[in-house]
Amino acid sequence: MELLRFATAGSVDDGKSTLIGRLLYDSKQVYEDQLESIERTSRERGDERVDLALLTDGLRAEREQGITIDVAHRYFATPRRKFIVADTPGHVQHTRNMVTGCSTADLALVLVDARNGITEQTRRHAFIASLLRIPHLAICVNKMDLVDYSKARFEEIRSELEEFAVRLEIPDLTFIPISALHGDNVVDRSPEMPWFQGSPLLHHLEEVHIASDRNLIDLRFPVQRVVRPRSGGLAGFRGYAGQMASGVLEVGDEVLVLPSGFTTRVESIETADGPLERAFPPMSIVVRLADELDISRGDMICRPRNQPACTQDVSAMLCWMSEAPLRVGAKLSLKHTTRWVRALVREIDYRLDVNTLHRDREADELRLNDIGRVELRTTAPIFYDEYPRNRATGSMILVDEATNATVAAGMLRRPAS
């Protein structure tokens, strides 16, 4: 079955965890012992009804505060599709967690409290979803039961967010009125909102088309490991292991290896289940080549007439995740696909206001949760595509060499001029 990765986002107390709990509960994905546990916890807390948010709020601090702090991943399946859901925190303090939770998502669910309408966090999360090039965005207007299932209120929120979304790059935008607490339009259509002619949330998740979202045009195979068994019947075997980032690779294809620039042909494609004639993302494979070339971890296999940019000067949109600010002159480690290089921050072009989309070109630093564009100089070339074209080879992280902490997630743009 096809796999859909989706992430939830929204302001604090908009009902993200309750929605995921309702999805799991109404689709019969909750085990009896799990249900007994959350029923017991709900009774101990004095709740009037079972708090389905406890299915995802696993940390003790989260349960005590009633908010999501960490990114909680849950797995479930229906007869039509498998799902991995990331329940991300809504507090502005934990925006970095939201970025990491959404980084691999095919679809983002942004919840809006029908009483409060569009908030700063709603705009922030919609913008981040656009920045991360998540192809599908579903706006769930939650707590409709608290506004008497008002069509007028739903349309008011929809109109306001559509006006803001015009300035973003969102190819697929959907609005669904729901009540996560009561299950309205979550798994089954709600009789309380006969005016809504769209699909319930689960049906939308099952039917949204994601097959064409992957880049199958640009062949990119970052080498993760050189495989050279030294004993047994595989003596003399030499292959290159890694995960397909994009494109399609077939036995017999002519390929080019970066940075050497040598060309050769694919002799075979091996997997744990046996040989293949063709591979595509996100398969993990071992590639054997017709010629013995000097290839190591971090090298890139592509097509001779379709190569990524190869440069030491790069421009990137960064989400800064460290409490220590980023300033010009900072030296960090940069990880891109399977390649590690050192990087120097040459310039901060601007800091972005996610509410107004204003570019502050006077900014001289990026602070925790800031988003801005920077120019970097690396000690060795990296092989990348612009992020809007290829999310796999257009993304990277920055790591503090002293603490080994990830301090930024970045989306690579055109080579710096």
Tell me briefly what this model is:
With 417 residues, the protein is of the alpha+beta class. 18% of the residues lie in helices and 35% in strands.
Fold and architecture overview:
- The protein is α+β, with helices and mostly antiparallel strands and 417 residues long.
- The chain folds into three domains: 211 residues, 3-Layer(aba) Sandwich (Rossmann fold), CATH 3.40.50.300; 82 residues, Translation factors (Elongation Factor Tu (Ef-tu), domain 3, Beta Barrel), CATH 2.40.30.10; 104 residues, Elongation Factor Tu (Ef-tu), domain 3 (Beta Barrel), CATH 2.40.30.10.
- 18% of the residues lie in helices and 35% in strands.
- The protein contains seven helices and 25 strands.
- The strands form five sheets. Strands 7, 8, 9, 11, 12, 13, 15 and 16 form an eight-stranded antiparallel beta sheet that branches. Strands 2-3-1-4-5-6 form a six-stranded mixed beta sheet, sandwiched between helices.
- Strand 20 and strand 21 form a beta hairpin.
- The longest helix has 15 residues.
